[in-house]
Amino acid sequence: MKRMPMIAGNWKMFKTGPQAVDTAAQVSAACRDVTDVQIMIAPAFVSLPLVAATVKDTPVCVGAQNLHFEAQGAFTGEISADMLIAAGAEYVIIGHSERRQYFFETDEMVCRKISAALSGGLKPILCIGETETQRDRGETFLTLDKQVSDGLQGFGPEELQDLVLAYEPVWAIGTGKSASAQQVEEVHQYLRSLLEKQFSFDLAQAIRVLYGGSVKPENINELMRITDVDGALVGGASLDADTFTKIIKFDNTL
Ligand code: PEP
Known about the structure:
By secondary structure, the chain is α/β, with parallel strands linked by helices. It has one domain (6-248): TIM Barrel (Alpha-Beta Barrel). It has eleven helices and eight strands. The protein has an eight-stranded parallel barrel with strand order 1-2-3-4-5-6-7-8, surrounded by seven helices. Helix 10 (217-224) links the parallel strand 7 and strand 8. The protein starts with 5 loop residues before the first strand and ends in a 6-residue tail after the last helix. The structure holds phosphoenolpyruvate (PEP).
């Protein structure tokens, strides 16, 4: 099955509003002719409406980096799905390893966030991935299995049509050390079979599975050639408009 590739930029806690607008304007101008790749930028919350206005009517869409699992309430400092939609977000990144590591997000919280995103009309990008220790211990598949089954517990295939899965080995994030093509291929194949087992063949074929972890212009072509890789979630290399544009315009003739 043909899945539309997606290249998503996670800007983390970088860029003020004006800086975000500037980079988003450059990326959307450089990519105005791109029709075969879904391009997404996830700026900081405060920049969401600004970036959404900047990329309006271009091939670029906007996502958030997190959300709260309640629809509203006394949760100081948090943000809801409705607020993100009103700010112009279409996607939301959920369960990024930095959220799991520094903000103690569990698979149970991730599951509640997926539910909040879907009820609010946001498309979730569920991030999963093993640490270096887990890989060294031979626990990669076990870790991913738990993150997928617990993170998506209770959903039926019909609810998950818009889900995007992002495999991000923790040891490859921000380290410059990308997973090898063989490691990525093995995991993406495994994830597709896991989705089939847990949900259905059709859903497993429909869901986009992105790779994330030190993606750059130099390795995107090799990654995109792997059968079960449907795109990339890019951190550091998405901050610079030229570099990000090179990734978005990967060589898809191969
Ligand atoms: C990320 O944070 O999702 C990520 C993949 O970062 P980087 O590309 O910088 O490794």
